[in-house]
Design a protein that fits this description.
The chain is about 85% helix and about 0% strand. It has about 240 residues and is mainly α.
Length: about 240
C-alpha cells in the first residue's frame, strides 16, 4: 500500500508538471510578439556592434566572445518581467499557491518554458550571428555549449527576481538590479570559455563551473522563487 501511494504521488507530481508546462507553453505561443522581442533585440544588437565599434576583423575577433555573451544576457533579461506577471494579473498565482500540486514543479515548468522560448533560440542563433563578428571556428562549439548551460542558469536565477518584483507594476529596473549581480559569474565563465577555445586552450574548467552553477540553480532557485512568490502574493 505504501509503495502504491508513493507511485501515485510520483505520477501526480509528474502530471502536475506536464499540465503546467503545457499551459505555460500555450500562453507563450499566444503572445508571439513577446517571444520575438528577445531574438529581435539580440539580432539588432549584434548587427550594430561592427558599425559602432570597428569593422576590422582583428578587433571583432577579440571582442566577439564578450559581445555575444553580454547581448545574450540582456536578451534573456528582457523577457524575465513577464515570467509570473500574467498569472499575478489574472489571479492564477493565488490558485497556484493554495493548490495541492507542488509549487516547486509549477515554478520549474514556467522556467523551462521561459528557457525554451528565449534562452534556447538565443543559443541556437548565437553561432550564426558570431559569423558577423569574425569569431574563429574554434570558438563555435564552446559558444554553443556555454550558452546552453548559461542561459538555463540565467532563466532559473531570473525567476527569483521575477517572483520578487511580480507585484510591482514597474519592476523591470528593480528586477535588473536584483539579478544582474548574480548573472556576472555566469557571464565571466561563459565568455572565458569561448575566449579560451579561440586561443586553443582547454575549456573543461569553465564548462564544469557553468555546469555547477546550473546544478545549484536547479536545486535552490525554484525554492527561493517559491518563497518570493508567497511574499509578493501576501504583500
Amino acid at each position: 500500500m505504501h509503495t502504491l501511494h508513493n507511485e501515485r504521488s510520483g505520477f501526480s507530481l509528474f502530471d502536475g508538471f506536464v499540465a503546467s508546462f503545457r499551459r505555460d507553453l500555450l500562453v507563450a505561443a499566444r503572445h508571439k510578439s513577446e517571444l520575438a522581442n528577445p531574438l529581435v533585440f539580440f539580432l539588432i544588437a549584434i548587427t550594430l556592434i561592427p558599425l559602432g565599434v570597428s569593422p576590422e576583423k582583428a578587433v571583432l575577433t577579440l571582442l566577439a566572445p564578450g559581445i555575444v555573451w553580454v547581448m545574450a544576457l540582456l536578451a534573456t533579461l528582457l523577457s524575465l518581467d513577464g515570467l509570473f506577471r500574467s498569472d499575478y494579473d489574472d489571479g492564477s498565482l493565488e490558485q497556484m499557491l493554495i493548490s495541492p500540486q507542488s509549487l516547486y514543479f509549477a515554478v520549474m515548468a514556467k522556467v523551462l518554458v521561459h528557457w525554451l522560448v528565449s534562452g534556447l533560440p538565443v543559443t541556437l542563433l548565437a553561432p550564426i550571428l558570431a559569423l558577423m563578428l569574425s569569431l574563429p571556428a574554434e570558438g563555435y562549439w564552446a559558444l554553443f555549449v556555454s550558452l546552453l548551460l548559461g542561459t538555463a542558469s540565467m532563466s532559473l536565477i531570473g525567476a527569483v527576481g521575477a517572483a520578487l518584483t511580480v507585484s510591482l507594476r514597474k519592476g523591470g529596473l528593480l528586477l535588473s538590479l536584483i539579478v544582474m549581480p548574480l548573472y556576472i559569474p555566469v557571464l565571466i565563465f561563459g565568455a572565458s570559455a569561448v575566449q579560451t577555445a579561440v586561443q586553443g586552450g582547454a575549456i573543461t574548467m569553465q564548462l564544469a563551473v557553468l555546469g555547477a552553477f546550473l546544478a545549484l540553480a536547479i536545486v535552490l532557485a525554484p525554492i527561493a522563487a517559491m518563497g518570493a512568490l508567497r511574499i509578493s502574493a501576501n504583500g
